[in-house]
Amino acid sequence: MPAAIRNEPKPPLIWTNTLMFVLTALAAAVLVPWYGLTHGFSGADVGVFLFFLVANGMAITAGYHRLWAHRTYEAHWSLRVFFLIFGTMSLQNSVFAWCSGHRAHHLHVDDEDKDPYSARRGFWFSHIGWMLREYPSGRPDFTNIPDLKKDPMLAFQHRYYVPLALATNFGLPLAAGILFHDVWGMLILAGVLRLVWSHHVTFFINSLAHMWGSRPYTEENSARDNPVLAVLTYGEGYHNFHHIFTHDYRNGVRWWQWDPSKWLIGGLEHTGLTRRLKRTPVIHIQRALLTMQFDRAQARLAALPAGGHVQLEALRARIAHEYESFLAALAEWARVKEQWLEEKKRAVLEHWQQVDLQSKFREIERRLSLQVRRMRVLQAQLA
């Protein structure tokens, strides 16, 4: 049911969030053009602004999202510290809170009562409204993050989130301003504008990425693939793929699709900073694509007149033939996979049999060695 006709009282406002979003947006709208016209921003201001902006974005997409929420890869402690610093600076709550809400979103996607930022409740709600009021769907429940609660680094960030957030949002731009001799310019551009831009670009993943774009892999939820949003959100715009293959470290699975988070994670694998990257088998991706194509083709054929033209009947027969070929390919793949697993089991068994035989050989050799010693003793006694 759209938000406009939901018959329920509005929950109380969360004043901390409301004031933060309103005041930072007003400050960016007023201070950025005023300071730019009266004083001007230096190249250092722009450079640090871009660095902080990208670092914040990648800390959310590659860190909060793909590393911790979905565990799509493992990262070296130094990379995790980087993600924690700039993820905290992005002011989107602790890893515990962010990942708990995101896992609830995937589990209950599009459920208006359980999805914390269900797009079915409208753009405003899914974009920012869900954070402004105490909605029941947004109440924190950390029972779905038992793995994260074991990490002392994440526990430290959650415990001291407020002072850490203040230190990173004021301290880092201030330090850069002192270094480059433009404190106010740095605070306004790399502090305020960076924060507002980073917020709303990330929020587009919850709102527009569920409303605008195509659904090539599944129509079971509202998530969309959108190359424009992918550019803005560091690759998160390929959201339809992500919602069906949540444990893949990639969102833009094609080589040409814009996904800098994927490139960062994959590139750092060569340095040892990331490892155990999870990739969806190609056959599963192709099966999802073809299933959608056949479903849509059948729906279009069903909507056409029953009699049909000669060419239409030929098209029906051709689609039916293609579908049979598709099922045959899937069956063949299943047989080959089963054969491969059997071969792998046999290889493992043979390996352990070889290990067992080698152990027996060593035991016999040890017994013979002891026998040689005993015979030496006997020979000495006989002499």
Question: Topology of this structure?
Answer:
Layout: H1 15-38, H2 43-69, E1 74-75, H3 77-89, H4 95-107, H5 123-127, H6 152-159, H7 161-180, H8 183-206, H9 227-232, H10 239-244, H11 260-269, E2 274-275, H12 282-303, H13 310-382
Antiparallel strand pairs: 1-2
Helix pairs in contact: 1-8, 2-3, 2-4, 2-8, 3-7, 7-8, 12-13
What labels describe this entry?
mainly alpha, 383 residues, two-stranded antiparallel sheet, 13 helices
Structural write-up:
It is extended, with a radius of gyration of 29 Å. It starts with 14 loop residues before the first helix and ends with a helix. It contains 13 helices and two strands, in the order ααβαααααααααβαα. α12 (282-303) packs antiparallel against α13. It has helices spanning 15-38, 43-69, 77-89, 95-107, 123-127, 152-159, 161-180, 183-206, 227-232, 239-244, 260-269, 282-303, 310-382; strands spanning 74-75, 274-275.
Tally of individual helices = 13
The overall strand count is 2
Number of domains: 2
Structural class: mainly alpha
Quick take:
The chain has 383 residues and is an all-alpha fold. 66% of the residues lie in helices and 1% in strands. The chain has 2 domains: 3-280, no CATH class; 283-365.
